[in-house]
Amino acid sequence: MEESVAPVHGFIDHPPAAPLTAIDRGKPVPLTLRTLDPADAERLAEMTEALLDATRHG
């Protein structure tokens, strides 16, 4: 567990200068990657919320 949260501690102790940063295994990745598309992220967030609501209200 300590190993898993260590990168998070690094971000808290030394936040990146850019307002949005993507890191993969300790290395910055370009925000232009298709897997980082904001519209896809929004859709995933909406779908996740809908699933959580469905499980809460049975």
Write a concise synopsis of the structure shown.
The protein is mainly alpha-helical and 58 residues long.
What's the gyration radius in Å? Answer: 15 Å
Largest sheet: 2 strands, antiparallel
Going by helix content, strand content and strand pairing, the class is mainly alpha
Number of helices: 2
Strand fraction band?
Answer: 5-15%
Low-pLDDT stretches: none
Described by the principal axes of the CA atoms, the overall outline is extended
Q: Oligomerization state of this entry?
A: single chain
Main-sheet strand order equals 1-2
Kindly state the percentage of residues in helix.
55-70%
Please write the string of helix (H) and strand (E) elements.
Answer: HEEH
> Distance between the terminal alpha carbons, to the nearest Å?
33 Å
Mean pLDDT: 89
**Secondary structure tally: strands:** 2
Overview of the molecule:
With 58 residues, the chain is mainly alpha-helical. Helices cover 55% and strands 10% of the residues. The protein contains two helices and two strands. The chain is extended and about 40 Å long. The N and C termini lie far apart (33 Å). The mean pLDDT is 89.
